[in-house]
Records
---
Amino acid sequence: MADAAMTTPKDELMVAIAPDVAKIEQSMREDLQEVTTGSDPLLSEVLEYGIFNGGKRLRPLLLVLAARLCGFRSDGKRDIYKLAIAFEYLHGATLFHDDVIDRADMRRGKPSVNKKFGVVAAILGGDFLHSRSMFLVGALGGIDALKIFCQATNAMVDGEFLQLRNAQNYNLSEDDYFAAVKGKTALLIAATCEIGALAGGATTIQQHALAEYGIGLGTAFQIIDDLLDYQGETVQTGKAVGNDFQEGKMTLPLILALSSASAEDKARLLFLLENESARQDGFSEVYGLIEKYDGFSSSRKRAESIVAKVVAGLRLFSGEECRPVLSVLNALAQYVLARKK
Amino acid sequence: MADAAMTTPKDELMVAIAPDVAKIEQSMREDLQEVTTGSDPLLSEVLEYGIFNGGKRLRPLLLVLAARLCGFRSDGKRDIYKLAIAFEYLHGATLFHDDVIDRADMRRGKPSVNKKFGVVAAILGGDFLHSRSMFLVGALGGIDALKIFCQATNAMVDGEFLQLRNAQNYNLSEDDYFAAVKGKTALLIAATCEIGALAGGATTIQQHALAEYGIGLGTAFQIIDDLLDYQGETVQTGKAVGNDFQEGKMTLPLILALSSASAEDKARLLFLLENESARQDGFSEVYGLIEKYDGFSSSRKRAESIVAKVVAGLRLFSGEECRPVLSVLNALAQYVLARKK
């Protein structure tokens, strides 16, 4: 028998979001069915495989919550879930393409689309999802929503180019890092929240607060991702630990450690980063040096303070009817901080 | 001194379309400048390199012509060129991605984006153009235009999947071939014409006739492409001759030859196609067999009759003011048939 004392905040969050997540899943199934009717069966198979992969559906959920917070009530005419799934499609499209770019064999513990179906399927399947997502945003959210969406996707591409450039730069500053994360991850989460706000009839101030919440949540998400890449357990994350370091990627724990390391330790860290052969056996040494300069705990503190600030920014939604949604948005932010995978 | 007797229909066509083509080029430069302001310089460089590559600008030109044929007159408020360039962007996006898929090193006689800037730039640069094109169609053409556009891009992806499947099938029928060409190439040209028609305030019948014109033009374009792959001169096309055959690709000349070949010749053709080692030295033999069964001339006849039919379908634009545009649309169709590269 379940013991009430044993329920965790995570359990409570999962219960609170379950009905929306179920409707999001159902909406995706129905939409994919509709849009691939008459298509090549392989296309359906690729999309099905790539999209129904145990993802958290965080993005569409945020859209639905933002809309509800701003006053959206289902009237049977407008389908908020169908607008919301656009963001899961776009997310899927970027994962399909990232797997080609990174030549990644695995995704969430199973073969990536690229590995299983090949590069044609991964690129074109991604293009298909990209196209469908933009259509849904334009058709159901209107031109203002499409504009916000495209600004975010453009920023995402730009963020990747910035990262490409940063890959050569081991003296990356914290500001550079946050700029890249904003483009690569956070602006799209912000767009999700903003477009939800628009659909709910938000005021400009409400829309802005939700955009900030999205930026903060996305940034914290990425920082925790960086931490998990060093500290996560492979069995939970489905990814190899130490990947970022092996690729010479400058993530926040490393940047913060470098910024406060002694000249000697800084030189040693840079040596390990710059030499591919040294990197191969250097993980535990780098891990130790990051820990010595509090790179992990400082990164976590950054994430916590970002989340605290943007959650506080939602206080302007002060009505009684806002409470349930605010409570979920707060719990989601805590979940992002606490997640182990 | 230029001799009037020496001007060809192609020269006349080039003169007739030059003002529109110049405005299309200018519109693309201005738009790319605007949309990449503040972006990573590498992104601008990649887009500039990939887009300003001596392309014919056939797609945006068709949109402008279709709009004008249906009554669009520039009033200084609506910018038809900015809507038109969306189709060049989308075309660019597909070329960027195709070069990754085909691992093509060359494009129009110079290194492909993939070769010159790498796979990240080719995939993400393509995504950027894709995203911008959809935004322009949604914002300037409206939701109806976006819907037509997305149906065409979805069909394009589907056509590629169909082709992937067909690659294993050496018994491809003429119908299979035309279905794949429709999805891969023709529907997008049709969408260009249709969206131009919409922007010009077309009636449903006018819109339909222009869509058919686009389908026909696109199909003829692909058939001629297939012919050039066997019969073109590398110095003009910038592509190696015999590529399709070396890849075992079933194109129209081969399909038509197979359908009327003797049992013995059919078996020989299939043997050459199915065996990679036999293919390497088999080009001239296959060429001879296709010629023996009129595969080339029959393909050309198919293209000619398709073009004749859809050009005739434009007769419903009977007003005096339609003549100049009709004459260009007719000349474009003849140019597609006559092109050497």
---
Amino acid sequence: MTEESVVNEKSAEHMAKDHREISISQFFEKNRHLLGYDNKIKALLTIIKEGVDNALDATEEARILPDIYIKIEEIDKETYRIVIRDNGPGIIRAQISKIFGKLLYGSKFHRLRQSRGQQGIGISGAVLYAQLTTGESTKILTSTGKGKTHKIEMKIDVKTNEPKILKDEVIDGKEWKGTQITIVVEGIYREHKQSVIEYLKQTAISNPFANITFDSPNGRVEFKRAVDHLPKEPKEIKPHLYGIEVGIMTRMLQETKGRSILGFLTTEFSRVGKKSAEDICKKAGIDDKISPKKIEHSQIVEMVKAIKEVKLSRPPTDCLSPLTQELVEAGLSKELNPEFVTSISRPPTVYRGWPFQIEVGIAYGGSIKEASVMRLANRVPLLYQSGDCAISKAVAGVDWKRYGLSGDKIPDAPVTIFVHMSSVWVPFTSESKEAIASYTTIIKEIKLALQDCARKLSIYLSGIRKAERIAEKRRIYEKYAHETAVALNELTGDEKEKIEKAILKIVEEKWGEIEQELIEENDKETGVEKEDENK
Amino acid sequence: MTEESVVNEKSAEHMAKDHREISISQFFEKNRHLLGYDNKIKALLTIIKEGVDNALDATEEARILPDIYIKIEEIDKETYRIVIRDNGPGIIRAQISKIFGKLLYGSKFHRLRQSRGQQGIGISGAVLYAQLTTGESTKILTSTGKGKTHKIEMKIDVKTNEPKILKDEVIDGKEWKGTQITIVVEGIYREHKQSVIEYLKQTAISNPFANITFDSPNGRVEFKRAVDHLPKEPKEIKPHLYGIEVGIMTRMLQETKGRSILGFLTTEFSRVGKKSAEDICKKAGIDDKISPKKIEHSQIVEMVKAIKEVKLSRPPTDCLSPLTQELVEAGLSKELNPEFVTSISRPPTVYRGWPFQIEVGIAYGGSIKEASVMRLANRVPLLYQSGDCAISKAVAGVDWKRYGLSGDKIPDAPVTIFVHMSSVWVPFTSESKEAIASYTTIIKEIKLALQDCARKLSIYLSGIRKAERIAEKRRIYEKYAHETAVALNELTGDEKEKIEKAILKIVEEKWGEIEQELIEENDKETGVEKEDENK
């Protein structure tokens, strides 16, 4: 150790004095790019996304067909007033301030059931961004439909991560149900590929049961409802043993009301029968009648190991609410007006104990002019970080040439590839929820679904090509008939028209055979066949 | 609205009952991939990284030359015991439990001064991961050098995000200073490119004043200290006005002890003189003698606007502790043993009001066999998410061909490109701190530094090529001398040896001139020249 370093050495006591707690609001105020507020253009998109996601979750959970109204208005240079209104059930007074004024608060984090939100950060993050950039409070109007409207103005106290209420009024007399928020933020409005308008278009496709009206700075855009029923309601499920680690198991054992390990295993988890529970206890060397509170650490470790060796039923999948092929195709058709559309809804499966389901749609031609991929998670469009996303990786992993489509990572054709993951817990790569983490099982499921749709598109396209080839051949026969007639006329002096008619008649009569030959030849060339799913 | 949806409609009251607070520990328990615990291989690296970063921060802050000991031991299948020990100042009892047992707690988040840690999440995240995967508590031994050692065993109560102390002992008699932590986790030990060993090697390069001993599952590896002094100590600075938004300004106005706006501006911020403060107030239409507490919202907005129009001095840069060219080159030389090394330390500059500084080193040849990039932030190696990182983008943005190096995004040559960003606040793209966000100013600075080093390498390489060419020419002259001698001997009958000697003498005498010509010709061909920084 050098002389100098000894002289300047600081004590632990000296260093301790600066230690302090960091509130989650302070953390995200300084790290707001983690919530999607990287820049002023993206900021507007993030706010709309958080507001609309909440509006759709609220209406859907209350089983109401959503009518969503959005307005973005420039009120000063790079300063916008945003209004988002829904026809949901409204919010009771006791919840308003925490929902909008506290980061990490909500109903969706703890329960195992599909919803758009899952972190309890989104809308309060928007309130935080507003007060940070313009200093403006957020205004909330909400009514649960009993003639009373709550009007609240609020901010977040970043030091405590608690709501700070500035105005709290009750307005009587107006009969309505729903919630409206008004947020004033710094931003820049653009209409490019990663914009509010693209987000709303994709939202309209993936939520075709919603009516969305958008008053943009450039005028009104309407996305009309295409189907008048909601997807089936997702049910809450219990956790599945396959996803349980030692830490969670320890906590659950302490908290359970089950009196024996057997009771604990069969009541606290999804689909664990008496037989499986006994198997687990036996393999772990535990008496299955022992109280969960009395089980020791080493026994918990053994139990978690034993779980991996016991075959368990998959978790129930009624916690998911997939779009179904009907809605995927309805959504793509209404917004893209394609020449051809196909889709598949894969059977639900599981990653890390969490159920999920993949749906893919491919729309071709019509008003679609180039290839693009729409990524969605729990019906929410993902517009950023595509390079990091499991969906992009799966799309790039498909051998499109095999399906008669040129192009390397994405087909070089006028197609929109729509990929939707439904899950009780989407593994996003960041708090801004822009990309799905690359679990092997998830990528594999997406690939299988893509291949299925690609095959159907390929058959359609080969049908077009077939029809074109056949028509072309027929044109040649017909042309040949005319020329033969001319030649025979010169040779025999017979009437040209008569000869031509005779030849055309032969072509017409023989056409069935000729066509069949052409079809077989064509199929051999394009090589369309059903792929093995286990590859 | 359809009949069915009316029937099933749920009330706001019904929906309110599930709302709950989410503790930050619960949040990261479920989202542990955000902290770098994506998989078992990466988990070991993340823990070592968090532990070693803390050890280096503690020793450096206390001005002690670091001696760091690390041990990774497999104690069961995919289960490892990790020990990390430093010779730092130790931790006083009151702080131990919160530092290790509470996420979002620390000294580094609030102050503006360069350090490795900045979020107050790292080491408590490791404790959380241990209890989640193996259920084991974390053991801490620490002494501040007064003969007392604290021995603590602890976990985190995830529901409250508070430490849960399981053992709390004081051991007397042993004289030492420092901290040792023992963590037992699920993991997989590998020695590939993104591994613990690579992290330690890069740490040794960027912290050549540290002694690092690593007992790996495959044996001991030592990284010896190469210089025996620490980099200069960074000073804490005040915030700079250029980075201040309305929200922060509002809070600071409420909290200040300054009695007038003038006093507030000149004392709470970096480098704001009386003249600048008066200018800001004048442009914002505010009386500069008014109390900060009395200023209204619209005035704050005007003030923030005015700040953008007033020219302010840049913040002081003594909050930074760059490596200096000496340490960059010492580090690269000691670990890579290259044939050639060059470096540059750019002058400090500012992004969003935060000072930062870029240093680049390029090492060539020797034991380096292929091209690679080392990315570092505040002396910490970044091993993941390179595609997202400002450093990778800057490297790919350099036209390496211009410097006589083939290759597209990275030179196709045996080079190690070392890029280091020092800052009071590194804008990481996630909590796992693996990539630097792509601010234009940051990318530009890195590019300039890379170009400077590339030019120096190019001159060196052209020197080698030059020497090679000249030697080759000389060999040709010499060969020519011999052949000429043979021919002349046949022609004139003179002695071959005599003729050859005479020719060689002429070559020798004329060599200076020949060489100069060759050098000029060579320079013209390779086109080495100083680049314009403003391009």
